[in-house]
Design a protein that fits this description.
- Strand 2 and strand 3 form a beta hairpin.
- The longest helix has 26 residues.
- With 336 residues, this protein is α+β, with helices and mostly antiparallel strands.
- The chain is globular, with a radius of gyration of 23 Å.
- The protein is built from 13 helices and five strands.
Length: 336
């Protein structure tokens, strides 16, 4: 069967009963995976909404563990589906629920349990932020419907996607024979395109010139032979025209080096998150590219690439993460 036969029509959406019926037909492992996906998705959307309200600018696909490093109040802890409205699950107001959500206050340790309609009443979160959280939760439900409907309509995996490295969660989804979301397919397609770009840049300059003029990245490399290619990409006005006149810093100030390492040691892996924390709490320069990415981003990456105790890897298209292991072999294109 052609993989395209599983595509959805605009407006496809399941009722609660229809969703329950389709979930009940899945294997236990499939149900467990989707439950975990829902919880993690909601946790991410919850933290993202609160972080944006505080003025942080971060990619949508940032890990919730990193997002929560920027928060000092409520974090999303999960939800329970009782299968039906039951007195065993109650809101803080006493109302019996089917779906009960749980949030925890990082500073006080207080935990609140509630139906989603009472999120604002029991947490004191601003109404606009709550509306953004609810919108995000609804988008997560849409994604569950997308998977269930694609499964029903005979979706099958496109073998051409195998040429792109898969994040563990997508690989697990494929192993469980669950359809991929449109955004996951787009992610893999973009990875393939980025890999082709990297393959092109690794070829000798003379060979690239035979196929046409050098692109802007090549110009930076040719003008500044010692400048790492990803940093040149980040500074390229053809891709990231600066939103202000703040220059891209090439060396990380000494006063910011120890905070960067401390954030990594405390478990924060995302460079985008670390940059936001440096800007908001350590007086780092706040200049940004037009994409919203801090101009400090490539500088922090270069600083960490020079330290052998940290391993770097890309996170989607807009971020990079570091963990305390042996230095990575390659400097990924995510700096751009």
């Amino acid at each position: 069967m052609n993989w395209r036969q599983g595509r959805l029509e605009p407006g496809d959406r399941l009722s609660v009963q229809e969703r329950d019926e389709r979930l009940a037909a899945l294997t236990g492992d499939q149900q467990s995976y989707l439950q975990s996906m829902l919880t993690r998705g909601r946790r991410t959307r919850f933290a993202n909404s609160l972080a944006r309200a505080k003025g942080y600018q971060i990619p949508e696909d940032t890990d919730p563990e990193d997002l929560e490093q920027m928060l000092d109040e409520w974090v999303y802890a999960g939800f329970v589906d009782g299968g039906q409205v039951t007195p065993e699950l109650r809101c803080e107001c006493g109302r019996a629920l089917r779906y009960r959500h749980e949030v925890r206050h990082k500073t006080s340790g207080i935990t609140r349990y509630f139906g989603i309609d009472h999120l604002m009443e029991h947490t004191g979160i601003d109404a606009k932020v709550v509306a953004d959280i609810l919108k995000g939760f609804e988008a997560i439900d849409y994604e569950l419907d997308e998977i269930l409907l694609k499964l029903e309509k005979g979706w099958s995996f496109d073998p051409s996607l195998l040429s792109s490295p898969m994040p563990p969660e997508i690989e697990r989804q494929v192993q469980l024979e669950l359809p991929l979301l449109d955004r996951q397919i787009l992610f893999l397609r973009r990875q393939q395109v980025e890999q082709k770009k990297r393959d092109h840049k690794e070829r000798p300059v003379e060979e690239r010139m035979t196929n046409g003029p050098l692109v802007m990245d090549d110009l930076f490399g040719a003008t500044f032979p010692g400048l790492p290619q990803p940093l040149a990409s980040a500074a390229s006005v053809s891709e990231n025209e600066p939103s202000d006149s703040t220059p891209v810093p090439f060396d990380l100030p000494v006063t910011l080096q120890e905070p960067v390492l401390n954030y990594l040691r405390s478990g924060t892996k995302s460079v985008r998150i670390i940059c936001e924390l440096l800007i908001h709490h350590h007086g780092a320069p706040g200049g940004r590219f037009s994409t919203g990415k801090p101009k400090l981003f490539p500088t922090v990456c270069l600083f960490l690439e020079g330290r052998s105790e940290w391993t770097g890897s890309s996170i989607g298209q807009e971020d990079r993460s570091y963990t305390g292991k042996e230095k990575s072999d390659s400097f990924n294109h995510s700096l751009g």
